Amino acid sequence: MLRRISLTSQISIGMLVGGFAGLILGPQIAGIQLIGNIFLRLIQMAVVLLIFGAVIEAIGGLAANQLGRLGGKTAGWFLITTLAAAVLGLLIGYLVNPGIGMNLSRVSHATEIAKAPSNIDQTILNFFPSNIFDSLAKGNVIQVIIFAILFGIVLNQANKAGTFNQVLSLIKQLNQLTVKLVMLVMRTAPIGIASLMAWVTADSGLKVVLPLLKFLMAFGLGSVVFLTCLFTLISWYAKIPLGGLIKGFSRIILIAFTTTSSAIALPVEMTDAESRLGVSKSISQLVLPLGMALNSNGLAMYLSLACLTLTQLYGISLSFVAMLKIILLSVIACLGTVVVPGGGLVALTIVVPTLGLPTESIAILAGIDWFSGMFRTVLNVVGDTTTAIAIAADEKELNHDIYEQVRPVTK
């Protein structure tokens, strides 16, 4: 009897079939984008609710002495990995020099990009919600997380005597139903992803990728180096086999690579962190939603590499101070950046003008944003999940037995 094809294999097949269909049939198949967009919306409709409930449940259910300790460890890991990614992006940029020899005329092609706040004060102010229902309706992830953190802290403090156990139980049940809803939609992932890949290749083919192949190659190289170092570090730190660790990440990486969205990958990330990587539920529900909005390793590397590429394009030599500025801005711009496809362009509108580069130069990278988003998202979700593994190991909440035989998630 033939084994049932796993969801991971179905998605891989869908991605390949969609890509070839787009290349062969061209513009006549571009209308298939509608199916892919419906799939993305069905996933996105529940993501904000999932984040909202998961953060409240995670913080509300913690013991008082765990709250400050876990928060500090999480912030520390996020800062270290994001800084490392930004520095590596700059180093790879100097190694490959992707901006040398590129065609400057591409800057003249106007691209509509979402407006970023004009100053740092407004950026910080926009982190805080004035109306939580408005934040939920607009899908403002960072505002939702800040409210959920505060609500979770209040629930945690007020429930010391078990007075609000029913509220905590209701939130847990809501989270369970939300996850089931998302996983139901995920059954259509092979079709949705095939449709998106067909549209991308039909719309642009190779004409958009080839002129910036050097940039993509540099980003791909940086991604491989970063993942290799990160997996090796976590394998040593958490005392888990490297092979089992990589195998446990297989579906997370594939979903992130094909959807280019940390938000869409989050439900799978949380499920696999617990069932395939041995992270306890309390750790995964605290670290992963926070990481989605606050820990963007892939975006930090992308921004530093992109800024160096643009300076090379304009023939600008960078001083050591300018390099530090790029690294710092790349880390800061990751906070609260949109976690859906295209968020990299929004982040660029924060960093590029601050460096004195013309805003229209962002159009150079806009044509391949989908492809660079594949690398960004993989680094983002892997960085979040490895942080969860490290913290779970610290807290003795990592199931090492699961690495002896990593099994597919049963439905």
UniProtKB/TrEMBL annotation:
It is found in: Cell membrane. Keywords: Cell membrane, Membrane, Transmembrane, Transmembrane helix, Transport. The chain crosses the membrane at residues 12-36, 42-64, 76-96, 136-156, 177-200, 212-237, 249-266, 320-340. Pfam families: SDF. It is a multi-pass membrane protein. InterPro entries: Na-dicarboxylate_symporter (IPR001991), Na:dicarbo_symporter_sf (IPR036458). This is Sodium:dicarboxylate symporter. It comes from Lentilactobacillus diolivorans. The lineage of its organism: Bacteria, Bacillati, Bacillota, Bacilli, Lactobacillales.
